Amino acid sequence: MEGKIHVLIPEEKVQARLDELAAQINADYEGKQIHLICVLKGGVFAACELAKRITLPLTMDFMSVSSYGDATVSSGLVRIVKDLDEPIENKHVLIAEDIIDSGNTLHHLLEILTSRRPADIQICTLLDKPDRRTAQVEVKYTGFSIPDKFVIGCGLDYKQLYRNLPYVGVIE
Ligand code: IMP
Ligand code: MG
Prior knowledge:
The protein is an alpha/beta fold. It has three helices and nine strands, in the order βαβαβββαββββ. The chain has helices at residues 11-28, 44-53, 104-114; strands spanning 5-9, 34-40, 58-67, 78-82, 92-100, 120-128, 141-145, 151-152, 168-171. Strands 4-3-2-5-6-7 form a six-stranded mixed sheet. Magnesium ion binds at residues 39, 42-43, 97-98.
């Protein structure tokens, strides 16, 4: 899989889309305080880039989850590797994600977080691969819908590498 990297979404487009998403979030949450949850590790780029653009009062927390069992076929269950530090009860929770693929991770994460009684809970994802969806998830803010290709950059890794690329790429 190691080879040349083909740019799928250039940095300028990623930045411009983040500006648009944040503008929409600023308008939608006017008068409210946002509790931004970053899903580690991939969501860190989306979370920081959004946080910088959100002009409303904002708090952040971090969570890390992993799928149970086999890495290629998701069992549909998620394990909390690192839980949030703070309770989310009555908070306006916004989850920042890098990508939604099968939707399994977020579907189960939403179940866990909803049971903690936030005021409301929404998802913002930089990328979406709708062709691969097997679990139902409602996503309010999507950066880009992309074809079913394995992508890297903007928080997304291949064997833990390439998260730092400022664009979305595909390894040829
Ligand atoms: P889901 O539960 O199938 O939606 O899994 C989403 C997770 O799989 C993401 O948070 C990523 O960590 C990983 N993932 C899915 N597609 C890609 C990709 O194209 N590149 C890198 N990681 C990916
Ligand atoms: Mg992720």
